[in-house]
Specification:
It is built from 17 helices and 22 strands. It is α/β, with parallel strands linked by helices and about 450 residues long. It has helices at about 5-15, 60-65, 85-100, 115-125, 140-145, 170-175, 190-195, 200-205, 205-210, 225-230, 285-295, 300-310, 340-355, 375-385, 400-410, 420-430, 450-459, and strands at about 5, 15-20, 25, 30, 45, 70, 80, 105-110, 130, 155-160, 180-185, 215-220, 235-240, 250-255, 260-270, 270-275, 320-325, 330-335, 360-365, 390-395, 415-420, 440. A 9-stranded mixed beta sheet has the order 9-10-8-11-12-13-14-15-16. The protein has 3 domains: about 5-85, 3-Layer(aba) Sandwich (Udp-n-acetylmuramoylalanyl-d-glutamate--2,6- Diaminopimelate Ligase, Chain: A, domain 1), CATH 3.40.1390.10; about 100-310, UDP-N-acetylmuramoyl-L-alanine:D-glutamate ligase, CATH 3.40.1190; about 320-459, Protein-Tyrosine Phosphatase, Chain A (Alpha-Beta Complex), CATH 3.90.190. GO terms for molecular function: ligase activity. It catalyses: D-alanyl-D-alanine + UDP-N-acetyl-alpha-D-muramoyl-L-alanyl-gamma-D-glutamyl-meso-2,6-diaminopimelate + ATP = UDP-N-acetyl-alpha-D-muramoyl-L-alanyl-gamma-D-glutamyl-meso-2,6-diaminopimeloyl-D-alanyl-D-alanine + ADP + phosphate + H(+). This is UDP-N-acetylmuramoyl-tripeptide--D-alanyl-D-alanine ligase. Involved in cell wall formation. Catalyzes the final step in the synthesis of UDP-N-acetylmuramoyl-pentapeptide, the precursor of murein.
Length: about 450
């Protein structure tokens, strides 16, 4: 964040100052939408959510060091009052970018965004000052908050861009116009909001490449025909990545080493170099190639990219997060979110990690799957059985029961249990786990199975 006075911020966002003793007081630190994350000199962004209203925490945020509150009504402490807080924070972020001018990298996709963002940030940080999206703060509030962490010394700004519906990426790229746009894949996440199938998802995701300038780069997944179909929607230069032999940035000699860690030969237009990832699951190769494609477009050499990928580690919680318990139980927490694609990848990664050890899957619902939801949950049940999981705990009523029934009727030797809720799942898993087991936990974030995974990890 570059220092700004409250009166300057008010002009930028069209705010009225309330209870502000000194309009020349300066905001010198980033903004935060959680009062617990406010730092001295920062700006507290008060929004009303389903569970809490930030306006109720305004006084605490100022007591914690916030210079003022961006709010939709007076709050009894220094405040910049606007009609629409989310619109205002976007205007402020755009104003900041006009003054500091980093290279903006936008990335989107149905699955893998956060892991790819974390890998890319770790590669670029070795090269120059980099700011990247925290956790999965990738919407109309989270993206501006990320932008406001940048300052005059920031060279690369890596922005995860989420799209729950058509038009979202057009809005986000309007706040932070990217020079480089990366599209990972087109899957079924959010299909319920976007239309009826992958073509509708592709239409929404392609808004990112439409926003690119002619001298920018569109980085497209050569293994995904829906993504490659976006090439005609941009005037930017195209750089492809993937496992395909036709990809310009690709992986050769892919294998698994150690505890399910992928290794491969990275091939780019500038040469080749070996990579050994510190993440688990062969699907991580695609995420690493996406990060490598961005770094290639930025001019980094293949050895520098490969070294950065090899040194990178998991940064975001709830994504194949591994905890080893004293009794030998390994908890694999992948419960941040779930779609059929990520569920399949996570199950395979956990099974590869387990080897010959006993495996338990604790699975909840995958949200926003539209009319195909029950069939997709049944597919996951069959996969659990086909992969050789020993125990399945299906959590929740409705579609998870289809997961349980498909596994039960598969003819495979899998013990199937059902739980009504997270508490029931925890009780069942606690009773069923044996020393040395590997337990994999995953569901869409609204199910709350992350709490189950964390409790199992502490047991």
């Amino acid at each position: 964040m570059i220092p700004m006075t409250l009166e300057r911020i008010a002009r930028v966002v069209g705010a009225r100052l309330h209870d502000v003793p000194d309009p020349r007081a300066r905001v010198t630190a980033p903004a935060a939408a959680d009062s617990r994350e406010v730092v001295p000199g920062g700006l507290f962004v008060a929004t009303a959510g389903a569970r809490a209203d930030g306006h109720d925490h305004a006084a605490g945020a100022v007591a914690g060091g916030a210079v003022a509150v961006l709010a939709s009504r007076p709050v009894g402490v220094p405040a910049l009052v606007v009609e629409d807080v989310r619109l205002a924070i976007g205007l402020l972020a755009g104003h900041l970018l006009e003054h500091i001018g980093p290279t903006v990298i936008g990335l989107t996709g149905s699955v893998g965004k956060t892991t790819t963002k974390d890998l890319l940030a770790q590669v670029l940080e070795r090269h120059a000052a980099t700011v990247a999206t925290d956790r999965s703060f990738n919407n109309e509030l989270g993206l501006p908050l990320t932008v406001l962490r940048a300052d005059a010394g920031t060279r690369y700004l890596v922005l995860e861009m989420g799209a729950g519906r058509k038009g979202d990426l057009t809005y986000l790229t309007g706040i932070a116009p990217p020079r480089i746009g990366l599209v990972l894949n087109v899957g079924t996440a959010h299909v319920e909001r976007m239309g009826t199938g992958p073509a509708d998802v592709a239409e929404a995701k392609g808004e990112l490449v439409e926003a690119l300038p002619a001298d920018g780069f569109a980085l497209l997944n050569a293994d995904d025909p829906y993504v490659m179909g976006m090439a005609g929607r941009t005037g930017a230069r195209i750089l492809s990545f993937g496992r395909s032999a036709r990809a310009q940035v690709r992986a050769e000699a892919v294998r698994t080493i150690g505890r399910a860690h992928p290794a491969f030969e990275l091939v780019t237009p500038s040469g080749r170099a070996p990579v050994e990832l510190g993440l688990i699951g062969e699907h991580q190769v695609g995420n690493a190639l996406a990060a490598a494609a961005v770094a290639t477009a930025l001019g980094l050499g293949v050895t520098e990219i490969a070294d950065g990928l090899t040194a990178a580690r998991r940064r975001s919680a709830g994504r194949l997060e591994i905890v080893e318990r004293p009794d030998g139980v390994t908890v694999v927490d992948d419960a941040y979110n779930a779609s059929p694609e990520s569920m399949r990848a996570g199950l395979r990664a956990a099974k590869a990690l387990a080897g010959t050890r006993r495996t338990v899957a604790v699975l909840g619902a995958m949200g926003q799957q539209a009319e195909a939801s029950r069939a997709r949950h049944a597919e996951i049940g069959r996969l659990v059985a086909d992969l050789g999981f020993d125990v399945l705990i299906a959590v929740g009523a409705g579609d998870p029961l289809a997961t349980a029934e498909a596994a039960r009727s598969s003819g495979r030797d899998v013990a199937v249990h059902t739980a009504e809720d997270v508490a029931g799942a925890l009780a069942l898993a606690t009773a069923l786990l044996e020393p040395g087991d590997v337990v994999f936990v995953k569901a869409s974030s609204e199910i709350g199975l992350g709490a189950c995974a964390r409790a199992l990890a502490r047991a």
